[in-house]
Amino acid sequence: MRGTLIEVLGAERGSSLYTFEWLNNRVRFHLDPKQCEGGVFLALDENGECIGHTIVRMEGSGQGLFATLYVVPGARRTGVGESLVVVGEAWFRDHGATSVTTHTHPDNAPLIRLFARRGYRLSPVNEDFVSLRKEAG
């Protein structure tokens, strides 16, 4: 999660938004079915190194949320991000999502393009965020 924040918002702002403890607790929250209907998916390379991840959760009323999606720079443009979206969308279908959303900074062009190619529609939220949404299917 921090890698995305640093890339999009810059090192100073991206590093200062959340402590490591908060980020660690956030991942654990998504893995604890008593707290959240969510999941964490990792993309591993041939050596078992993590090269990407996505965190997903149901927000209620059939709304699925990609809470984060990140691919390490050296593995980008190889289909890893697309694969993580496909896995997340399958998870949402299995959990009864009727629509799926993600939020990002308006300057995060690679993520916006990735989701737009899969049929997500962009809507401005404010100067710091845009929303990408599509109906599940």
Biggest sheet layout: 6 strands, mixed
Task: Return the string of H and E elements.
Answer: HHHEEEHEHEE
| Mean pLDDT level | 88
Strand fraction equals: 25-35%
Portion in helices: 25-40%
Radius of gyration, whole Å: 14 Å
Strands, total number: 6
The rough form would be described as: globular
Oligomer: single chain
Give the termini distance in whole angstroms: 27 Å
Secondary-structure-derived class: alpha+beta
Describe the structure.
The protein is of the alpha+beta class. It is built from 5 helices and 6 strands; from the N terminus they run H-H-H-E-E-E-H-E-H-E-E. A 6-stranded mixed sheet has the order 1-2-3-4-6-5, sandwiched between helices. Strand 2 (50-58) and strand 3 form a beta hairpin. The model has no long low-confidence stretch (mean pLDDT 88).
List keywords for this structure.
globular; 6 strands; 36% helix; alpha+beta; 137 residues; 5 helices; six-stranded mixed β-sheet; single chain
In brief:
The protein is built from five helices and six strands; from the N terminus they run αααβββαβαββ. It has helices at 2-9, 11-16, 20-31, 80-94, 109-117, and strands at residues 38-44, 50-58, 63-71, 99-104, 121-124, 130-135. Strands 1-2-3-4-6-5 form a six-stranded mixed β-sheet, with helices on both faces.
Summarize the helices and strands and which ones pair or pack.
Layout: H1 2-9, H2 11-16, H3 20-31, E1 38-44, E2 50-58, E3 63-71, H4 80-94, E4 99-104, H5 109-117, E5 121-124, E6 130-135
Parallel strand pairs: 3-4
Antiparallel strand pairs: 1-2, 2-3, 4-6, 5-6
